Queue: 3 jobs
Job 1
Amino acid sequence: MTYALTMIEAEIFRALADPTRRAVFERLAAGEMSVSELRTGMTVSQPAVSQHLAVLRGAGLVVERRAGRNAFYRADPQGLAPLLSWIERYRTFWPERIERLKAVLKDMDQ
Amino acid sequence: MTYALTMIEAEIFRALADPTRRAVFERLAAGEMSVSELRTGMTVSQPAVSQHLAVLRGAGLVVERRAGRNAFYRADPQGLAPLLSWIERYRTFWPERIERLKAVLKDMDQ
DNA sequence: CAAATCAATAAGTGATGACTTATGCTTTGA
DNA sequence: TCAAAGCATAAGTCATCACTTATTGATTTG
């Protein structure tokens, strides 16, 4: 269970480690796009794009929608949740003044 | 300037992509440790540890303190700030959690 | 039906990265 | 002062990864 979470984390970190893949994710965050649309404006080949999409999909960062011979992809920002959780683990080590601010903000939200 | 930030982002993502390096960071988040202390409980060689530390240091994720022949390292959680900023770009898809963190980040930037 | 389009997969290649052992440099302590 | 400890760097090796071209499968269109 903890292991499974760690594995997802690992896939996310690995997926986002590549600059080209981050660029793909960022473009797909702006809106759904077909693979060929995504390819325009990129210097890499179509198979390279497909390969990047497969990695992002495996990490849960993008979702696919098929329509005829087209494949539309969009970013799934909720896929970033495990990454956020990972970062939040270290909030406890952040300076105390930030912790205090956090509490204040949390209070304000309610 | 935006470019510089992007480069730091890239280094952080790359640094955290490796599971061993994440483990090192996590251990150093628990408290300062010398390189040899860090090495105990790890399967890799001492040079490997030093190399990982150099990468983490380059990404701004750990800081070094030298004392005699010892080198003590500790995690710098503020080094994660650019990573949070990156995630924060997708906040429109994350109604509430990120909004709080955004304020925290703003404070950390000072 | 045939040709073209869209996308994934196959297979191979070069670059990058994580490791190793060997070595050097600095500091400590007997 | 000399040996050992602590750590970094050098250099080389092997695995992984991002890319390429070639091909295939599936769908649309002429």
Job 2
Amino acid sequence: MGLLLKKGGNASSNTPAELNDSGDGRRNNATAMRRDYSGGLIVVSGISSLFGSKGGNFRSQFRLLCIASNSFTTTHTFSPLLRQCIDERWFPGIKTIQAQMLKSGFPIQLSGSKLVDAGLKCGEIGYARKVFDEMRERHIVTWNSLIAYFIKHRRSKEAVEVYRLMITSNVSPDEYTLSSVFKAFSDLGLEKEAQRSHGLAVVLGLEVSNVFVGSALVDMYVKFGKTREAKLVLDRVEEKDVVLITALVVGYSQKGEDAEAVKAFRSMLVEGVQPNEYTYASVLISCGNLKDISYGKLIHGLMIKSGFDSALGSQTSLLTMYLRCCLVDDSLCIFKCIEYPNEVTWTSLVSGLVLNGREEMALTEFRKMMCDSVKPNSFTLSSALRGCSNLAMFEEGRQIHGIVLKYGLDRDKYAGSGLIDLYGKCGCSDMARSVFDTLSEVDVISLNTMIYSYAQNGFGHEALELFERMMNLGLQANDVTVLSVLLACNNSGLVDEGCEFFESFRKGKVVLTNDHYACMVDMLGRAGRLDEAEMLINEVVNPDLVLWRTLLSACKIHRNVEMAERLKRKILEIAPGDEGTLILMSNLYASTGKWNRVIEMKSDMRGMKLKKSPAMSWVEVDRETHTFMAGDLFSHPNSEQILETLEELIKKAKDLGYAEDKSCVFQDMEESAKERSLHQHSEKLAIAFAVWRNVGGSIRILKNLRVCVDCHSWIKIVSRVIKREIICRDSKRFHHFRDGSCSCRDYW
DNA sequence: GTAGGGTTAG
């Protein structure tokens, strides 16, 4: 095309600067123009023949036309040119035409609609808006196009502004306007204004007659959380289609009304509307939530039959469904069949595996994803982090923290909460706090996570301070907040404060569950206020096993055999042969020296084929997790070194005043055997291993049961012997052992 | 000429 211009010689001085665009015309030539349009064609073909060009692309023709700009005399001349420029998304050409129009004295209104359309299609919103504002009168399509552009680009505020301008300009919205503007209302939470516009849709009869308007309304009410309203709208729409019904299925599914989602899906089949991949994607999630694997499989079948099983979105939902139904193997089968999993698919896999307690596998898959160069998002990272925090994999978690930083997601609330959770569950409240302090947005969830981290680590005052901040920010506490606050009081021995909070929570908006009561029962029980704790349970409408068992374990702590036996009868009525209860009773009898009763309990348990789950501890060394079981002295390849180190540690501890606490042995045996059994507790083995391997920094132990009194006092002294912090996460809370004392202040 | 629905999370 440059050649042609050169041929034109001095004519290039007539060419506006914009024409120096080097973009290629994608299609079209003079012939096509001749066929399509009538106005400019004479001029174009005239010039073509003048230069003897055989076709050539549109842009070169256009340049020639501009050279002969005196031919721009009527709107007919440039109208087809403009259309061509729009088709080609060629913005410089559009601006040239506008300039020519102005030069020829045409008012902009004449082609305003087209120019706005052109600006929007070329993504030149500033230009489009300027032309729009200069127009005295606008066609409804122009209004709609501008609104639609803003919606499409998630600029809801501007969309609503234009819509309001439309109303104040006395232009009546039509089905196109309404079907897009509702999305902006839900996005901005403008419920009142949305209702007014809904009213307008009703008056115009569009709610019933136009399925686009109906779907937009359904979607909007769903996003406002008003599924009931959404359903009412749907019922009124005359001709229901797949999008309309899917919008409702999605709505129910996202609001956790899973049974309703499945019901809406069924109604779709009954009405003979064919579901598509969007529908399947949502209804499968609800099946997963309901753990309704039979209906899930039925839908899987339907998908295969209708060929929608190959779309990535629906495959991801299938994967999620199988994982939520705990069918790990089936889900792995699905995953294997997916050719190009995207980050959502991978995230679904990682989070689902964590959900099923398959953390190791989850992290392996996460690493595979990284090897495949699929970029993780904040969802992926928070799932992987949860895997680490479940197993207290500190080093692994720190590696993922590195990835979080690499992708600049450290200020993101999802990834951030994952990190807070990780550090909290690894006993590093200060690291959790520094992550929390860098978050760009503090919300209820990140606050809850931080409060919970403090709570489980026994930093009650810090937790309560944050709770106060939450209140000052005007954020609404939820059930997790309440639990975290109560736990904070519980783990820090702040019993009076805990009771006060509980009273105020009772009057608050959050519906208290058995978990909240269990926390209070534990708090009162451990403080020895057993009667108060029992009274509290009696206030609960449906007291469950956990509540009674919590009180029973308080009886064990305070060796209240009489109350314990009464509770035991009560519990065994609700749950005959409850394992936890029998173990607690057996331990209580043991600690009070009632060995005959212990033997009775043990034979009861044997009769019911119940076995105590073994005490286990884990410790991570060089990113490898080592498992230790109480009494198992030989499985570990380094048993010899471990026992040697352990012996040394026990000796040094004894020098500093450690003595075995034999009340922790729940078996009737010789005194020396009791001592031996204490020495073989899993946390002692794990610590000895970590000491032998000379772990740098703090030693972190994870334990499946509660730390016993003997181990607790031993670890305290060992922390002084080795001059190292030992952090132990047991089944209930954290213990930070440092220089001879523990963060729990011996209250746990 | 302009319009409506999804899958991963603490």
Job 3
Amino acid sequence: MTVKITDVARHAGVSPSTVSYALSGKRPISAETRARVAASIRELGYRPHAGARALASSKSNVLAMVVPLRAGIHVPVVMGFAVSVVTSARAHDHDVLLVTQEEGEEGLRRVAESALVDALIVMDVQLDDPRLPLLRTLDRPSVLIGFPSAADGMTCIDLDFRAAGEVCVDHLAGLGHRVVGLIGSPPEVYVRQTSFAQRVLQGFTAAATRHGMTSTVHPCEATPAAAREVAERLLREHPALTGVVVHNEAVLDPLLDAFEHLGLRIPADLSITALCPDDLATSLRVPLTSIAIPSAELGEQAVNLLMRKLDGAPVPEATLLPARLTPRASTAHRLTG
Amino acid sequence: MTVKITDVARHAGVSPSTVSYALSGKRPISAETRARVAASIRELGYRPHAGARALASSKSNVLAMVVPLRAGIHVPVVMGFAVSVVTSARAHDHDVLLVTQEEGEEGLRRVAESALVDALIVMDVQLDDPRLPLLRTLDRPSVLIGFPSAADGMTCIDLDFRAAGEVCVDHLAGLGHRVVGLIGSPPEVYVRQTSFAQRVLQGFTAAATRHGMTSTVHPCEATPAAAREVAERLLREHPALTGVVVHNEAVLDPLLDAFEHLGLRIPADLSITALCPDDLATSLRVPLTSIAIPSAELGEQAVNLLMRKLDGAPVPEATLLPARLTPRASTAHRLTG
DNA sequence: TTCCCCCGTCGAAGCGCTTCGACATGGCCC
DNA sequence: GGGCCATGTCGAAGCGCTTCGACGGGGGAA
């Protein structure tokens, strides 16, 4: 059959425990022995049996990642995050098990209690998420992507969406704009109380109020048709509008299109800032001033937090990645007069 | 600590092996005993330890799924497929481990040889895929999404992309069109020899030849700018063009936009058929005549094939899902004269 | 009635690894 | 020079489950 640790031990002329220690480094092993063991491993093509390891050590070296598949979330962002989680986990010698949101709390319970995974990463957290109480009772560490309303005792990380909303408005205010609109996520995202959407909204509104600006908010379905409609309505209802913040990756191009059709030049007549991945912002007809959604960094940091928790180290309860605005060609000073 | 099988056995007044058999059904257990065991399990909240199970049975009940993260693949399709794989796997009491393409052959070898997974699903297969020889040597079953050039001994499944290309052209031919164009995937996809792109192209060309049509082919980057440029060039170089097949989900809306700008009405002046997910086809300004990319069905069938292989049952080497064209508003008879 | 076989259950032997205590060796300190 | 500690290695005991062989009892066939 396949080669096991006793085969390696025999081949290297040491005991199985020595091989194990040489592999894990949990006890000092002489350089010489270590080299001999390494050679035997290579020669025999030895690969520790994951199940045996998990059983003996009560560590599976597997992380669970719960991915959302619901309406209104931007798929590439999720995918980017997922890939970054897997890559980071691998850097820590861990693998990643994919769990769908659909499986709900039972899915989390299953993979955690069967010791299939050592820890969990949960995305798309809602303000009042039903999985929270469960996660508290599981004795496995977890990290949430997003902030629920009662996050005490949980470890949460996310882009600082509130700041993102503010920074966009600040930027527009600095350019002299006085009437601004927020084109947001699809309505169901707000209804669901997914926290990131709410927080952008709060930041947007707060900053607009602070600057004494006139502001308006429009959720928008993730279809080109909806985008055109929202653009039209926005301008009809607010003819003085000169600045727009878009928090909806899926409709950026259709929106630019629609504004163009409506006779507006960007940025001459209308300034636009967006919350979206950088590669999207730079691939449109007008390079957009934007705040990047750092899914890669988010995934990496989430994994780092989890590893620290697995090591028993203390971690901050809340981690907010700073909202960094990159000025591009879609924003300009308001034409006065 | 956590409750284990001996606890359940004691509580139910049976031996551990009886509990195991009651759970697995591998030996007959009286209905009465089974009920008693079930009650004890529920009462104690017992959950078998995955590692122990894997060690004892040499089955982990985990599938590996290799997802591509490369340029030119349409992310929502991959995501839909992934979700469907996880869901189907769960229906067969299996979990799914996410492996990135980036890890390459070593990743496959690792999860397979460490017995972390029982079987593998590999997406984005190239014509001459370096992972093939490896997969042949691994003693774990696998299913490929896509067809390599030498697929003997492998189990492959995919949409019948060649037929898809043909069906689109047949449809246009039936409507009287004589000059047709294919707007394809980004150039790197062809360079990489990803098989699906090639096969669409073959089908397209073969059908056009068969119908005696004039045809032209243009790869297209997945950006709105590229879409506009391709649309322009297409019409400039082939003024008589009246039918277009688009195999590039990312640029559908920009293309419609570009054709409109160029003064073409769809379908009056130009008929368009697409290969894309149904929800995309129906959410654009003009509902597109399209061939759906059935990622959900693909995922489900891939898992079914894998399960059959794990059971030692024979499976077909090649499975082609039929290309079904749904006529919508983007195609019409060519205006003659 | 006797033999056999099948049904339902048990006990014990692993699966391949980690980890703990023990032990041998060789400085180093006093 | 004897005691100690640090270093390097070994042996054995599990980790929690599955599975194989065995066994008792009851029913059908002869």
